[in-house]
Every structure is written in C-alpha cells, then in structure tokens.
Design goal:
17 helices, mainly alpha, 412 residues
Length: 412
Amino acid sequence: MHLHGYCMSLDDLAPDLAQRDRLWRAFLLLGACLMAAAALYRIPVELSRLAAEPLGSGAATDLIKRFREVHPWFDGRPVYGVIESADYPPASYILMFPLVHWATFEVARLVWMASTVAALLWLSVIMLRETRASTPIERAFVVLVPLASYAAAANIRIGQMGIHLIPMLLAGLLVLARQERSWKRDVLAAVLLVAALVKPTFSVPFFWVAFFRGGFRFSALAVGAYVALTLWGAAYQQDSLVALIQGWLGQSGNVEANTAHANLFSWLAAAGLQDWYLPGSLLVLVAAGVWTWWYRKADVWLLIAVASLVARFWSYHRWYDDILVLPAMIALYRMIAAEEREGRRDLVAMGFFVMLWGFSVSPAQLMEMPDPWGSLFKGTKTITWVLLLIELLRRTHRRTFAVVQQRQLEAA
C-alpha cells in the first residue's frame, strides 16, 4: 500500500511538472522576444547618444565628469574640493587614464563607446557559460537579459562604469574559485579585480570573496598593486597622500541621498542619520566580511550573489547601478537549471528570477513617475532584493550545514 501510494503520488505530480515546464518555456520564449525588441532599440540608440549627442541633453553626463577630473589630476592641479564630482580615490585616476585621458572629449567618447561594446560582448560570453543555459531559447534569453535592461541602457548613455566592472569582477572571482592555482592565474585575477576597484563603492564587497577564496598570494598581489596605483596617482598631485585621502573621503561623503534608492545612505538620510553614512557602510562591509569568511567554502556563485546585493545596498547608488543585481540573477538561473536537470523545479528561485527579470527590463521611467507610483515601483523592487538576500543567506547556510553533516557521516 505504501509503495502503491508513492507511485500514485509520482503519477499525480507528473502532469504538474509538465505544466510548469511548459509555462517556463513559454516565459523564456516570450521574454526573449520582448528583450530582443528592447535591446534592438535601446543599445543602438544609447550608443549613438553616448558617442554623438550634444552635452547637456542627457548623454555622456558622467563621462564628461571623469574627463574634466582626469585632465587636471595629471596636470597637477587640485581636484578634491575644487571639482564637485571628484569623489574617486587617487588610484582610480590611474585606472581611468587609458579610456578617458584623450586630447579631446570627442575622442574619449568614441574610445569609451568601443570599450562598452567590448564589455557587453564579454558579459554575454559569461552569461552563456555560467547560467548553464542549454537550449537555443535559453541561450538567447540569458544573453539578452543584460542587453535589454534599463540599467545597461543608462550605463551606456551617461558613460557609467557598471558594464565594464561586472565582467571584470566575475571573471576574476571565477579564476580564483575554479582554476588550478598558479602565479599566472593569481596575477590575472589580481589585474582583473584591482582594475574593477576604479569604482570602489561598486566593487569592494566582492573582495571578501576574492580574499577568502584566493588565499595569501592573491591577496598580497592585489593589495600591493592597489597601494602602488595609489602612490602612482598621488605623485601627480602637490598635496600629500594623507591630504589626498582626506580630500577623497570628504568629497565622497557629500552625496544627495534623496536622488538614490535601495541603499544604506538613502535609508539613513530618511531617518535623519546622515552622520552615520561612513560608519554604517563600514559596519555593513565588516558584517559581510565575517559572513563570507564563515561560509568561504560554499558554492562561489552563492557568495558572489550575496556580495552583489551587499554592494547594491552598502553605499550610495542610483538606478544605473542596478546592474549590480545581475550576478544574483545568474546565481538564480543556475539553481533553476540544476534542478531541471534532476527533473525538479526550484519554484522559489524561479519566482525570484521572474521578479528580478521583470524589474530589470521595465522602463526606467517607472521610477520617475509621480507618487505613489514611482515610490511603489522602487519600494517593491527594494523589498524583493532584501527578501532575495535573506533567501540566499538561508540557502548558503543550509547547503553548508548539509555538507558538514555528510562529511561527519562519512567519517563515522
């Protein structure tokens, strides 16, 4: 009777699983079509705006800031406290130099556009390889996810760095986590990850994964390289290194938190605790480091996904930095693909993935709608991200605990 009941339960589940499978394939097909249309419109339009649209009309707004900071920096003229937008550390100006320090801004725009296209292609390769997408429709879907997102469109249009940084971070972390360790691979990972530190508020939380999975040799290379870049950058300025660091920290604390959302600065500003910007960020960063060390042997994609959400929350970010959520989407898709191969469906991962996908491909204008609609969209998105972070923390603990139990049983 027990065996008969078990077989009946499998028979009952089979149609349900088949229905879910059909719905999932329909979602992938419809989503791929929608994203193809969005990408075919957004990418060419935003690239042309980045390269040629007159300044003052909304294009290349961040790139022109970097251009106007980098040139005086290397001319030895003061930047911190003089140029309002100069909130990058000394090492960042060395890292920006190859793409930004050109004779005219028109040339810098074209170079930046070419580098953006290359970064998008690199990101597409990572998406194909890491999501475990197998069928043609799955592969088309995952490639289109970043290309059709409002965050990618915004990064392209204004000349932000997110599109450049995500593939560098992911490639560097995966080199450390998966390949056989050697000097060559540690140097490669250090180059990729230190280059991503051009925007520390974007990249720093990922370094906990790098340090705890990379070991001493990588950590020494990365820290040494960044210190060298800092000294190199500071050499072009007349102020001392200490004065430059103080100027950078003072400048980076002057943010308009009301223009951002889904980050600690905005939440502290809403509570009237602006003096806690720096201490609060450091506390969150330290907590993330302790957690990453404790679970350092967990699946690297769980660690990366948690780091990506912490990076989105821990410091000041505006909506173009929503591209930081992309690694969490890759981790979710990997969970879905793994369960499908075992004939199951990870409904929780599916639910979160569909919600994050829906947010990412939505028109950015939804965030600028009059209240309550704009606030409702941003609030719903933020709550979903927070719930996803909690779920990822839970899964990491559960999987780590299961591995420990298995090892104890094998030892017994």
